[in-house]
Amino acid sequence: MADQEIQVVEKKELSPEGGELTRNGVYFTPAVDIFETTQELTVVVDLPGINPEDVEVDLRDSVLTIIGETQPTVSEGQELLTEYRTGGYYRTFRVNDLIDDSKIAASMTDGVLTLKLPKSEKATPRKIPVSVE
Amino acid sequence: MARWEIYRDPWVGEFSRLQKSMSNLLSELGEGSTPSSEFLFRKSRLFPPINVQKQQDNYNISAEIPGVKSDEIELTVHGDTLTIKGERKPDPRDEGASYHRRERSHGAFQRCISLPEKVDSENIGATYKNGVLTITLPLDKIAGPRKISVATE
Q1: Distance (Å, whole) CA B92 – CA A110
Q2: What does pTM read for this prediction?
């Protein structure tokens, strides 16, 4: 079993500092994990409640944009307890040009989007064999 | 004669510095800007946060738990307590991977929710889609007001 307890992190609503979104609705900043190996960069994003077909991933001009659109829910009934808010998700990252734009893979299960960004040829370290003369 | 320049007074400077840092602290409380500030002001809430809704014939409890398999979530009802239990596993990653960001939490979670008595605990249903667990608790129809007829003697 795990030896640590999961922590509750409150959702941070997108603040319009970097420019307002022209879309309607509430957008939150999703939690991400980013890790890097010599071959690729992996970005894992928590997007609960978003259908995979409503996720947009865009990479242009070294900016990676992740948008999760949500269907507006008609709330039927009386809300007794609301501990979390629902809405869309939006986050952007600057990605340097070590990424090979054409080979990005994205997959999503159970509300978690995984992006694999392979590094381009010039970025992967190449071993140069030294011959002995 | 040297004029005493008020704005150079060390006390005034000190107070305005204190006031500025207090207002910075308060604004941070309001916005919750960085994850590090959340450590100080986090309420001791339980994971997962739930939304409870009452509809005509049932209660609906929904919780956002992305990244677990639906057969890894343990839902049990014992008496009038509903328990949601599970574990969010860390991502599989290769050795030698270096993290740039680590914001998603993982670990074990368990939350007990006490149910109102009018719930039909035999027929509780649950679905897990896109990381959202939705539990439907039908209201106990039998517990409605019952008419008692008065017989005349």
Answers
A1: 16
A2: 0.69
